[in-house]
Protein 1
Amino acid sequence: EDGSVDVEALRKVVAFNIEGNIDYLVVLGTTAESVTLSKAEKLLVMRTVEEANAGALPLVIGIGGNNTAALVEELQSADLSAYDAILSVSPYYNRPTQEGIYQHFAALSQASPLPIILYNVPSRTGSNMLPETVVRLAKKFDNIVAVKEACGDMTQVQELISKRPEGFLVLSGDDITALPTIVAGGDGVISVIGQGLPEEFSKMVHEGLNGNTEVAYSYHYKMQEGMKLIFEEGNPAGIKVIFEYLGLANPFVRLPLIVASDALKHRIVSFMESMIRIPA
């Protein structure tokens, strides 16, 4: 409530997700409100997750932005020994061309001590990293190993899957398209609602990856309403309502984000109550 990092809540969220059989954790992504954290606070979040995880799951660290030179310096100087990969968003606000996006990630690739997961989210960045650019990067740089694709266009996702080099992973960046992406040949998801429903969401993903599409979609449809609700007033305001319902964390966020409205809270709580009533 005072705006400080809630370390104890963060520990609870990590433990809850480990118990929920997820496959890996992403640290300092969008849901972490990383753009409003100071350098010291980011380090606090990193160390808290590292300690709470205690080697249980692979860790991915979010290091991205629109200042290429600053990111290169950060990659070269940061202690990333606890991490397995880097998630790096395509440059936002300055809206580079496809060649600019390529050159940006080429520079990061050469500086990075870890494999890189590209992140395409046009609704936030103002530019769309096209399949041709992703494939070009994947073929040129061995340490660019995956993309978190949140373009919202399944035709583009399918084109990317059909053109990617062998071994390159395509991960959905939207909960609502996670299973459709997997069914189309994708490899997984970096999720928001999965933090609040780790067991159910993991079952959906794993059943989908194992080819049990009907079972996977039964989980998808149970969670579909929640996938939409938690984004109605911005992320992470929605998922924090779920955290509060579960007794994991308070619902507070930093300006310019604000807490979810009472009306939305009521709808999210009703959704969570329905999830408890639905048999697995």
Protein 2
Amino acid sequence: IRKWTKDFRWPGVEGKDVIKLLQTAINENCKVRVNYQIEVLAVVNDTLGDLMSCSSTVRPCQIGVMIDAGTNCCYMEDTDCIPGSTQEPRGHMYINTEWGSFGNNGELNEEVTEFDLLVDKESMDQGKCRFEKMTSSYYVREIVRIILANLSGNAELFNGVLTPTLLIKGKLTLQDVVESNFYPKSVGLAKTKSFLSRLGLVASNQDCFHVQEICKAVYTRSAKLSAAGLAAILAHIHEQQQHPERMICLMSGDLYKSYPLYSEILQQTLKELVPECSVKFILSDEGSILGAAIVAAVEAKLRNHREGLAQVLAPFKLSIVDLERLRNGIRQEMDNGLSKAPSKKSCLRMLPTFVCYLPDGSERGDFLALDLGGTNFRVLMVHVKSQEEGGVHIINEIYAIPPEITQSTGAQLFDHIVNCMVDFHTKHGMSENALPLGFTFSFPCNQISLDKGILLRWTKGFSATDCVGEDVVNLLRDAVQRQKTIDVDVVALVNDTVGTMMSCAYLDHNCEVGLIVGTGCNACYMEEMRNVGTLDSNDGRMCINMECGAFGDDGCLEHYITPYDDIVDKESLNPSQQRFEKMISGMYLGEIVRYVLLELASRNILFKGHELKGLNNKGIFPTKLLSDIENRQHVYQLLEELGLPVSPEDAKVVKEVCHTVTSRAAMMCAAAVAAVVEKIRENKRMTKLEVTVGVDGTVYKMNPYFAKKLQDTVALLAPSCNVKFLLSEDGSGKGAALIAAVACRTKIS
């Protein structure tokens, strides 16, 4: 409670939460007297309570006005007009104006009379609630009393006889003021004489007529001031409406309801002030008690929804213990994968890439690069010059790979790739001389040498036949031979993650880690050869392609996998494979979100329990949409464009689901990065490591929340490492060319 009004005053309450005070009192009394629990769900302003009591009508009331012992107004505002509101646009929120405080800064000084000042002086909050003290029934009667006392003291009424009763606050009732004019003239006169007699005053007929006029003047001013306040709010709502319609205003309070002339004055004044506004006035019959009960009922329903939402999302929430266990598990699998004779087979391939050197800036020349890693295929011409001459310059073309090609035969897939290369040569008038080529091939390969790699399995929806178990460089060379139009010199087979690392290492020599979080998820890093038990050499270093997307394929992720992950896995092209990747990468995050939303709809938490047809469409939540939902404050329109006619409340739930799924993905990815940088630190026997991670992929690039969550979690899980994240510029293409350039440089040297 901010402050007491209406001359209420209990010490030690202002600044306190009245719900907590009430709940504490209830709990203490229930323990002693009754054996049941009562929980306070909502605190409701009486004006809002009146408004909510009419919420069951076909159209909700936009405005509620109370003119009672106090006065106030609530109205329905569009949420996109409320500064700082987290609600969705097209939603609404009732605003409690507390208009009784209007005038506290002097806005009503010209309207304030000497009698208003005397009433204010007798109040417990002098100088406050100026508008309320000029309009509410509590103060209307006090103003009349003060005027009568003043005129009597000046011998202008009652023959100058001022009785002590007239000086006592509260002795005049609202009924006295109203009934002086409510009844026919003769009856009104008698009523006036009766209440004056009760106050100990001997009043002539002329005195009674004057008193009637005083009462009428005071409540007329109250009605007109209330009309002016209401007119301001009606004009505001009318201005916002694209298609103005008749507004509904709920009126409550004894002053308005008990005296027809008061309502007539208010409504007539309103027509004069805002003739463009059409208003239907209705009276509050049930009062704020029913409204408070309705608010409590809605809150109880929403709380059940929140509890249901929390229950569904709970498996996605990872504690620091969960993350540390995940980091340690990945680290253990890294060691197993590098070992020549591991105690158990590792689910991490830890594949040698035969990339042993990072760029040092001395690379020069022209190089070709191919980039195959998803639904698009790129051909690039990369000119490598000195930094003074502009560094790396790239010409590239993007070609689509239709699904029928990705799931055809190997010959058809590689023929399509070569046809794209021929088109590139033709478009850019390239010479027939064979240029060194780096081939970015973003699928798990057992690399035999820098230019030879055996495809272990397809991922990301590819399933071309006659490729698994074959050398992909030879498949490319065979397709070139079948084409007989161009010639290439494939010098390096490159995983996109390695390309990303090399691209960033060209700019930052501390870069020893590559990370991709896009259609798939993978990481690589520079490992000491002495730790690579699968190779015979102990000298120098080599980049290791972790293929970390396969972590968990042995069942070690069971603790982290939700029912929604299981559904996505079963419906994928490679069930029970790439379990880690399916919890992180953009190819699967949208599907996880979709299945969570379907579950929430089945629990009546979303879409009023209706299962929307659009939600049954696989792929309705692409990576970009998840990023857009994370990046926008309001997502209502985004979802509507997908054919999901959601309410503003639904939109908030959808955003929370996306946020939670994205957060888990970022934290799990961070556990892998933390395991890698900690291993590099231990390899170098350093207490503190400065290291850069070159990172690429649509999930990281398009979703700032994912990127920040990833960085923050790495800092938490690898406190002895100062990790910098460097966004790769065309890593998979530029990096492939740089690997070819480094290979040529080291071959020459």
